[in-house]
Amino acid sequence: MAEHADKSDSAADEENSPRGKARPGTDWVAVKDQFVGILAGIVRWVGLIFALILVLHIVFTIAEANEENSIVSFVNGWADSLTLGFKDMFDPADDKLRVLVNFGIAAVVWLIISSFGAALVRRIGSLGK
Q1: N or C: which end of the chain has fewer CB within 10 A?
Q2: Alpha-carbon separation of residue 43 from 58, 60, 73 (angstroms)
Q3: How large is the average pLDDT for residues 101-129?
Q4: 121 Cβ partners below 8 Å, 6+ apart?
Q5: Around 116, how many Cα atoms within 13 Å sit in the side-chain half-sphere?
Q6: Cα separation of 120 and 29, whole Å?
Q7: Whole-angstrom Cα distance, residue 97 to residue 61?
Q8: CA end-to-end span of the chain
């Protein structure tokens, strides 16, 4: 019984506090690293989705998909705004070749941008280590 009565005042105060027992501190470095990793992943996935939209536009154009279809019109609408100025870079006589080359270049550029963007986020996130 005596060993229970020998609790220090700080331990007794800790147990009686409204927060209960003290928890170990949060590892803010790990939290920051996890956040940076998630943010870099989001940057990479956004670039991949943009490139996928451009590739789908190429496929729909070459396969002569029905432009009245809601999926095709959605992809075409987004693809036009994602070309980054490459939409009319090359102007061959064949429309399908024009779309393949110009939108293909834009898709590759989105992959490069997202790769560099994710690396930049990771690099900035690792500062101060």
Answers
A1: N
A2: 23, 26, 25
A3: 94
A4: 36, 39, 40, 43
A5: 5
A6: 18
A7: 10
A8: 50
CA-to-CA separations, 105 to 34, 92, 116, in angstroms, rounded: 33, 15, 17
How confident is the model at residue 29, as a pLDDT? 85
Residue 129 has pLDDT above 70, yes or no: no
Tokens of 115: 């790769």
Could you give the C-alpha distances from 17 to 4, 5, 24, 26, 54, in angstroms and in order? 18, 18, 16, 20, 59
Judge contact between 67 and 48, C-beta under 8 A.
no
- Angle, helix 70-81 to helix 28-62, in steps of 10 degrees: 110
50-107 per-position pLDDT tens digit: 999 999 999 999 999 999 999 999 999 999 999 999 999 999 999 999 999 999 999 9
For the ranges 8-22, 45-59, 93-107, 111-125, the lowest mean pLDDT is seen at 8-22
| Interatomic CA distance for residues 97 and 111, integer angstroms | 21
pLDDT at residue 21 is higher than 70: no
Report d(CA 61, CA 98) in Å as an integer: 10
